[in-house]
Amino acid sequence: MSIKLGTNDLAKYPFLNEASLYIKDTHFDLLEFDRSEMSFIINRSFEKIESFIKNNETRHYYKIDKFEIEILTFLASLLILKSASIDIITKKFALFESMRFEKYLIDDLKNSFKDETKRLILLKIFKEVFKIDVYAETKTIELYKIRVPEYIRRSILFHEQEWKLINRTVKDGYVYLDVSEIVRLFRNELSLLIIDKIKNMKSITFPKQVLIKSQKLKNYWDSVNKKTDVDIVNKKSVTPPCIDHLYRVLDTGENLPHSARLLLATFLLFSGKSIEEITEMFKKLPDFNERITRYQLEHLSGKTGSSKKYFVPSCEKIKMENLCHETNVCKGIINPVQLLGKRMKI
Ligand code: SF4
User: Among 148, 204, 241, 259, which residue has the least CB neighbours within 10 Å?
Assistant: First the structure.
């Protein structure tokens, strides 16, 4: 049976091939974004990027407009990001945009139990976007299943216990997941799909309005980087390789798992960095949330909670968490902070 997406689906999921076909079929020329009636779309796209980047905020953008507006807003956002070419901002936008799509998918899946066509449309989205067969479990409402290897390939990126295969319901070669879990499992892929869309845009003559907005974005980023260019620990110090690796990951705008954040935060606190300085650094994380970050740092530093100050994890523990990047400088040490001591003696 051929399943056709409705315009409402295209408005919610403008990353789908059907949305690109719509642009193609209407013979829309990118330079049309310079027409005065298009300034609304350009501004809307820029405000959305700004809100994701500055406020880590998606909720203002849950309300869906007409599908033509949503598709063009998505396209204009990609153009602005392509023109600005700032990796961290692109990754952050992709993560927040995928979280927004995630919300629609969860709502739609939850509402699709009595509507077989709707359900088929959503499963088609999984097939088209993630190249995977997701099956609805007929006997138990609200449950979906995917093949075990497909599950392992994706869940390996999650560090929380609940994602370990041993903690899942597995039957006849399938892993069972509820609606939120099945959607969450694909967040990384959706985010990568958006990044790829931006990277794969080729030979573009950017509309003037797009160039103006991307320049604004670059200016903002330059000003932020002046502030956040923290000379992490003293330049002359021996930075533990595990910590050095985390700095590099942070600089590329990749996300860090909870265990890595804990290691970095405790190490920086031990090195004498203030909560303020560490919060600035963590702003590079795609899912940065200032309130939560401050709360966690205050907790780790013993300023809140039980007043217990958390110490930097041992090398043994760091190794167990696959965060160790041992080199010769680590010889004979049992905790990364010993390298700071080493520096002081030099
Ligand atoms: S041996 Fe210790 S200090 Fe060195 S990289 Fe591994 S965890 Fe870090």
Answer: 204
**Res 267: pLDDT:** 92
H/E stretch holding 247: helix 241-251
In a domain? residue 69: yes
Q: Is residue 216 one of the residues assigned to a domain?
A: no
Query: 319 φ, ψ to 5°?
Result: -65, -40
Q: CA–CA separation, 182 vs 176, rounded Å?
A: 9
Kindly indicate the confidence band of residue 73, based on its pLDDT and cuts at 50, 70 and 90: very high
The number of folded domains in the chain is 2
- Probe residue for ligand 1, chosen from 242, 321, 333 as the CB with the greatest number of ligand atoms within 8 Å: 242
Q: Measuring from atom 7 of ligand 1, which residue has the nearest CA?
A: 315
Residues of the domain holding 52:
7-129+189-199
Asked whether residue 259 is assigned to any structural domain, the reply reads yes
**Token output for 44:** 């809307």
Q: What is the mean pLDDT of residues 140-157?
A: 84
Q: Is the pLDDT of residue 188 over 80?
A: no
Rounded Cα distance, 242 and 333, in Å? 13
Inter-residue contact 176 to 144 (CB < 8 Å): yes
Nearest CA to ligand 1 atom 2: 315
**Ligand 1 in contact with 315 (CB < 6 A)?**
yes
- Residue 253 Cβ inside 6 Å of ligand 1? The answer reads no
Query: Domain for residue 37, yes or no?
Result: yes
pLDDT of residue 231: 45
pTM for the whole structure: 0.69
DSSP string, 126-166: HHHHH----EE-SSSTTEEEEEHHHHHHHHTT--SGGGSGG
